[in-house]
Structures are given as C-alpha cells and as structure tokens.
Design a protein that fits this description.
Blueprint lengths: L29 E2 L24 E7 L8 E6 L3 H5 L7 E6 L6 E4 H6 L12 E5 L6 H4 L4 E6 L5 E7 L25 H9 L7 E5 L5 E5 L20 E7 L13 E2 L7 E6 L14 E9 L17 E6 L6 E3 L9 E10 L6 E4 L4 E4 L3 E5 L14 E2 L4 E7 L10 E4 L4 E3 L17 E2 L2 E3 L5 E5 L3 E5 L4 E3 L29 E2 L4 E7 L2 E6 L7 E2 L6 E6 L17 E5 L5 E4 L8 E2 L2 E4 L6 E4 L7 E9 L15 E5 L1 E5 L2 E3 L5 E10 L4 E3 L7 E2 L4 E7 L13 E2 L4 E6 L6 E7 L43 E6 L14
Parallel strand pairs: 12-19, 21-31, 33-41, 43-51
Antiparallel strand pairs: 1-8, 2-3, 2-9, 3-6, 4-5, 4-7, 7-8, 9-10, 11-13, 13-16, 14-15, 14-17, 17-18, 17-19, 20-22, 22-27, 23-26, 23-29, 24-28, 25-27, 28-31, 29-30, 32-34, 34-38, 35-40, 36-39, 37-38, 40-41, 42-44, 44-45, 44-49, 46-48, 47-50, 50-51
C-alpha cells in the first residue's frame, strides 16, 4: 500500500487583528487558537496543517512587567521528529505584534542546536527560546502577540496567541480552515480568573502536563521554576499517534487489504508511542473513547483535515486497560466504492486531540461488472433474434451489482486477447475457430449511460471473464494488498482481486452482414447468352465494406438472386446454397454455375443487374454505395444451313450463331466463344456413301464472328445425309431429324425452335439440323454459258 505523500501546497499565513485601544500595559494572557483563519495574506508560507502537528508544541511563556528575561518554551512530544527533520532544518518561529507591520522570524533550526539560543540544551526535549532570539518582541512590542511555528514546507505545526482579553485580537473562537484544531482556546472562566488573581503581575503561563494539558497561570513575581523540566512532575501521555492495520499485522507498518463495497470488514486500531511501538499503558487508568472513521485518502491533505466518506463510516471504540493499546474495531461497511481511503482515529479526551491516520491507504472496490447489450440473441443459434448488422451500432453498458450506490465510474479497458468468435454448437465458454473481428469501444465507463458499440464480424463474439477490465482503480493497493490480475470478489487468503470486470463469460450476437456485393463477368466476350452460365461472386460485407469472414457454415444463409432492374426471367439455381459461402464469399466463377434465362426467348438484348438477398434480409441493395454486377444478355441459337453440291468436291456446310434483335434473327458477330467437339455432329439418314469430315474441319469447331464451316470430303457417289449438332447436356441430339446421335456438347442455351412438328420435342429445346444433297444435279446450276 502507498504511504501518505507528505508534500504540501503553500497557502497564506493568518493576519492578526489589532487590539482594542487602551490595552497597552495590561497583564499578559495566554490564548490558544483552535483553528486558523486567514485574511489578507501576510506570509504565503503558513498554510495547511503540518504532519508534525502535536509533536512539537508551545509549552510555557514568561514575561514579567519589566520584560526582562522573557522567553517562550516549546516541548518536543515526539522524540523522533528531530532526527526525522534533520534537527528541524528549515523550520521557522514567526512572531507578530500589533504595533509592528511585519513579523519577525527566528530560524528554529538554529535555536534547537545552539545552546546560546536554547538554554535547555540541544539534546533536551524542552526548547527555551529567549526573547532576544525573537527580536525582543515580548519586552518591546505591544500586545497582542501571535506565535506561529511552521515546518520546512511552510505548514503550521502550532500556534500560540497572547492578549488582554479573548476579544482583543481578531479571530478568537473563529475557524481557520487552513489548519483546524491546532489547539483549544483558553476558556474564558480560566482566563478571567488568571487576570483577576492577586500578585504584582501575571508572569508565566504553562501547561500541565507538558504539551498536552490545560494552561494555567502563575502570579508569582519570579519566573516559573520548571523551565526546561516537567511541570509539577506530570508527564504527557505516552500515546502520540494511532494506526489502523489488518488483524494481527504489525502495529506500526501493517497493511490494509482491498475491501469490497457492501461487504463488512474490521481493522485493528493501535495506540502508538513516539517510538512507533504499541502503547500498552493506553487507557491504563480508565477507559478511553476514540472515534474511528474512514476518510478520503487521496492527495496530500493532512490527516486531521481529510474529508470523511459520505455516507459516513464511523464508530466509537472504547479502549480498556485489558486491550493494552490494541483493539479490533467493530464491523464497518461502505455502501459505495472508493479508490483511495484511509482510517482515521481521534482521541479528543484532552487538548490537543491525538489524531492519527493509517500508515497504509486502501481501496474499497465494487463487485463484478455485468455487461448488458442489445446484441443479446441466444447463442450459438444461427437463427436467433435480435440480429445486428456487422459494423452497425448496438448498445453496450457495464454496471456493478450495487450501482448506483457504489458510485463506481471507473474505466474498463478491453482486452482483445480474451475475445473468441463462434464455432456453432459448442458451449459458450468453449467458442473458438471463428475469426475475431474488431469490437468497439476499446473502453467503457462503468455505471454510465449505455455506449454505442459495434462489431465487424458475423456470427457471435464471446467475451471471456475480464474482457472489459479495470486494473487501475485499486492502484493504491498494488502490489501486494490485493490479488494481482484477479477478478475474484470473494475473499481468498483475506484478499480480493485487484481487477474489476465482467466475472462471467458473455456472448454478443447474432451479427449478420450489413450488405452483399455482387460481381459478374460476361460468359462470351462482351455478352452472355440467355441461359448460359456466367461467372458470379457474392460477397458478404460489414458496414465499413470489410468482408465478414464468419459468414459461412451455419451462419451463412441461402442467397436468393433477382433482377434488380426487373428483367423478366429466371435464375438457375436459385437460391444459391448457403454452403457456397466460404469466408464470407460465394465464388461461383470456376466453372460458372449460375444462369439467367429470359422469360421469352424472343426478347431483345437487355442488361441484367444481379441482386442477392438472404433469409435475414441482408441485400446487395443496401450497400453504400450499392455494388451490383451487370450483364448484357442476348437470346441466341445455333443454326445449320441446308447444303447441296457435287459428290466429287468437298462439301462445305455453314454453321452460325444468331441472336434475336427484337424484330428478327441476325448473325451474332460478337460470338467468338462458342465451340463444340466434332463428336457432337450427328450424321443420320445416309443415302450413298457415308460422309467423312475433312481435315480442314478443326476439332473442336470454334465460331469466329459468329460463323464456322463444316467441311466433308467428297463422297464420290450421289446421295444425301442429314446433320444435327447435339447441344444437350447429356444424351443424343434432340433435333427434328428422324434419327439421332452425337455426343452432348452442353450448349443448351443455343437450342432453338425449328419446327412445330418435331417428334414431340418442345420448342426451344430443338437442336439445329440440316439436309445435305449431293450429285443431283452435279453442280449448283441448270444451264451454264461461257462467253469470251
């Protein structure tokens, strides 16, 4: 635990009021100020209470009517303070008088170590300061006198005030907020009795016992005869301070562990001597009541001026002789959390009060944090609601069990190493295998309004205990007074965990993509035939445009395709199976597997804009910007032309692809992609010699600018045969010929409607056919005339 920081800010010194007229020459009197009030500052050095308060005090004053041999005596109540301050280096004794505009100062360090200035001797617990050492104020200046003892930081150790009546100087009975409870005022009855007692003059005032008892006066004409010695043989109490520690811990240096808001605890209260040992005689002659309270431990404020916790946590503890200076306080409970607290003990049974704060500060931390979110669909379901689009805002809040009573508003920081993503159908605490996206915010303020959060991935996100955690709140207890890194809010070896955070694992979800993007490529150069498979890619994305990699397996959904621009027709297959998505992407490019067929084959060329929407309503139409691929579609067919010629010459059969223009069919000169194997050519109904493809016919046959030629070798015999090209996906050709053959070329989008009487083959499922006539006539003309 951290000890108090003893550094202090500098504040103004008190300004003392002038006496009433006519008081010069009246008998001296001693007044003790209870609190420090400052007016227009005379000296910025005097300010808050010194940590050495009640360790060095004013003890005697002597001033005869002549003023000769006047002195002020101080008493060291704590013998260790001299060594601890390097023999009072930097300490000052300041004296103010009504008829002097400025104070005089004496170097207290010099007084302490110089026998010429300190007639009690440098090693004595009494320090006798002759009037000559303080500017002959007692013998030459007018009442009232005001003495201020300050330490090297300029903070007040003790105050002594002398005047002719309680009201003869400003501030009698008033508060001095810079350092309250320095001393008690001399009661008026005692003061007045001293003034009215018999004798030539009042020459001495002193405390019995030294430094802690009440003030009394002497009317003798001689100096009081206990200078540099104990007054009346009575010694001040042995107890000079108090400490609070854990049960059984060291009385002077024991620690206090972290406590839990709302949970009771007890501490040992110890009375200490000046040597920091237990005062076993405390309350030896009778019971002593002390106030035990918890106060704010932050900052450098002196113990006596620290602010009590609110609501108060305080009690009266009665010491008896049997306690021998150490006793356990009754159970204490703070309803709210505090990051820095100390225990203060006050014995007000005598002036000055003995006040001590625990040497160790401690934290009172809240219990575990509960994370609540609007992304709370039951995991690990692939269909549970509500859903949250990846990257979109959802609410996230962190509260503690007793909020708002515990008043904890610490910052919880996200530990990304404690995040895991979904693997379906595993227990919540065993989630792994998915890609962990980015969760924001990176920190949360506890017990504040819900924050807008976002998560970049699909599926579920699992937060292990301590994913949002505060390791700073209990800093005053680290290391050693709480369990480092632990979230436990039950005692373990007398300690709680240092960390505050979510103690239970929690799932966020169900997250779905924000939108899709569709990308397409033409299947045939610059266009795609109606019904022809084309390359298609569907990508699930979050709000920022990143791919939701976990949109796969059970968390992907069937994707329904549609024409965003209302082109009439049908996608096949539709929907795209959820299993097509791998890592958030459905790659349907190699080989292409999606096609779109016009509702009517007699449809003019049209652009198709591809849209996709899944069963959660995620659509490519909601992207910003919208990204939906577009294709130019043409209704097409493959055509064979009837041919006749000589059986003695090669036979050339034209083949061409055509598209529907909107008014009729035209050669598709943009087609440089259609190919088919020569095995797809079915030759049937042969009369004469069977035809044989010439070597000039490439295999496969490729169309160039929509055209190609089948070349057959001369048959050398008149006759005929029928041709067809099998464009089916399987089986023989479905042409209108009477006999069929060939192997499937898998080009069904080029089938056409060639005859209404086609052996029962439906329209637009008919393969192209042609009849080839050879040798009748032998040439393609009836009459030939040549002229030269």
């Amino acid at each position: 635990m951290n000890l108090h920081d003893e550094s202090r800010a500098v504040s103004p010194t008190p300004t003392f009021h002038a006496p009433r007229p006519g008081t010069r020459g009246a008998p001296l009197h001693v007044l003790l100020a209870a609190m420090l009030v400052w007016l227009a500052p005379l000296d910025a050095a005097h300010a808050a209470c010194s940590t050495h308060r009640s360790k060095v005090v004013f003890n005697e004053v002597y001033r005869p009517a002549s003023g000769a041999n006047s002195f002020v005596e101080l008493k060291i109540l704590n013998a260790s303070v001299a060594a601890g301050t390097a023999n009072f280096t930097g300490w000052k004794l300041d004296v103010y008088s009504v008829n002097v505009g400025t104070k005089t100062s004496a170097d207290f360090h010099s007084v302490f170590i110089n026998n010429a200035l300190n007639t009690c001797g440098a090693g004595s617990l009494w320090i006798r300061v002759p009037d000559a050492s303080i500017g002959n104020y007692l013998s030459t200046r007018a009442l009232p006198y005001n003495f201020v003892l300050a330490d090297s930081a300029g903070e007040i150790v003790d105050i002594l005030r002398l005047g002719t009546s309680p009201a003869s100087f400003y501030g009698a009975g008033s508060n001095y907020p810079g350092c309250s409870n320095i001393e008690s005022l001399l009661p008026n009855t005692q003061y007045d009795a001293t003034v009215s007692s018999s004798g030539a003059s009042q020459k001495s005032w002193y405390r019995t016992p030294d430094g802690s008892g009440t003030w009394t006066g002497s009317s003798t004409a001689n100096p009081f005869n206990t200078v540099c010695a104990s007054n009346n043989g009575v010694s001040p109490p042995a107890t000079t301070a108090f400490n609070c520690v854990e049960a059984g811990a060291s009385a002077a240096s024991g620690h206090i562990y972290t406590k839990l808001a709302g949970a009771p605890f007890s501490l040992d209260v110890v009375a200490l001597t000046a040597a920091n040992t237990v005062d076993t005689t405390y309350a030896g002659s009778g019971n002593r009541n002390v106030t035990v309270e918890l106060v704010d431990g932050s900052g450098a404020t002196a113990c006596a001026s620290r602010t009590p916790l609110s609501p108060a946590v305080a009690q009266t503890l009665t010491f008896t002789a049997a306690n021998q200076g150490r006793k356990a306080a009754a159970s204490m409970t703070s309803a709210r959390a505090w990051p820095n607290v100390c225990c203060r003990v006050t014995d007000s049974s005598q002036p000055p009060s003995i006040i001590g704060c625990s040497s160790d500060n401690f934290a009172i931390r809240p219990g575990a944090v509960t994370l609540t979110t609007s992304a709370n669909a039951a995991p690990p379901s692939a269909s549970a609601s509500p859903t949250v689009k990846a990257g979109s805002a959802f609410t996230l809040a962190a509260t503690t069990a007793s909020a708002p009573a515990d008043a904890y508003t610490g910052t919880l920081t996200l530990d990304t190493t404690l995040l895991t993503a979904q693997t379906p159908l595993q227990a919540v605490t065993q989630q792994s295998g998915g890609v962990v996206g980015t969760l924001s915010p990176a920190s949360l303020t506890a017990n504040a309004a819900a924050s807008n959060a976002s998560y970049s991935e699909a599926g579920y996100l699992y937060l292990a205990p301590g994913a949002y955690r505060d390791d700073v709140y209990t800093a005053v207890d680290q290391p050693g007074d709480c369990l480092a890194g632990s979230l436990v809010d039950t005692l373990s070896g007398g300690q709680y965990g240092c960390a505050i955070g979510n103690k239970a694992a929690v799932a966020f979800g169900r997250f779905i993509p924000d939108h899709f993007e569709t990308a397409v490529l033409p299947a045939c150069g610059s266009f795609t035939y109606s019904g022809q498979p084309f390359p298609l890619t569907l990508t699930a994305k979050n709000l920022a445009g990143g791919i939701t990699l976990n949109y796969a397996t059970a968390y992907a959904k069937p994707a329904t395709l549609s024409a965003a621009n209302a082109v009439a027709g049908t996608f096949t297959p539709n929907p795209v199976a959820a299993s097509a998505f791998v890592g958030g992407v459905a790659d349907l490019t190699a080989p292409p597997s999606v096609r779109f067929a016009f509702a009517s084959p007699l449809t003019a060329p049209a652009a198709l804009v591809v849209r996709t929407t899944d069963s959660d309503g995620v659509s490519s139409s909601s992207g910003s910007p919208v990204v939906e691929g577009s294709l130019m579609l043409r209704a097409g067919r493959l055509r064979l032309l009837n041919t006749y010629g000589s059986e003695l010459l090669p036979t050339r059969v034209p083949v061409r692809s055509e598209f529907y223009t909107g008014t009729g069919w035209s050669i598709n000169s943009a087609d440089n992609c259609t190919t088919f194997p020569t095995t797809a050519i079915a030759v049937t109904n042969v009369i004469g010699n069977a035809p044989v493809l010439a070597a000039a016919t490439s295999n496969p046959l490729a169309l160039v600018n929509g055209q190609a030629t089948l070349v057959f070798n001369p048959t050398l015999a008149a006759g005929r045969f029928d041709l067809a090209i099998d464009l089916n996906t399987a089986g023989a050709d479905t042409s209108c010929n009477t006999a069929h053959g060939g192997t499937a070329a898998n080009l069904p989008w080029l089938q056409g409607f060639w005859s209404s009487t086609c052996g029962g083959i439906p329209a637009w499922a008919q393969d192209p056919n042609a009849r080839i006539q050879l040798g009748a006539p032998k040439a393609p003309y009836i009459y030939l005339r040549e002229r030269y």
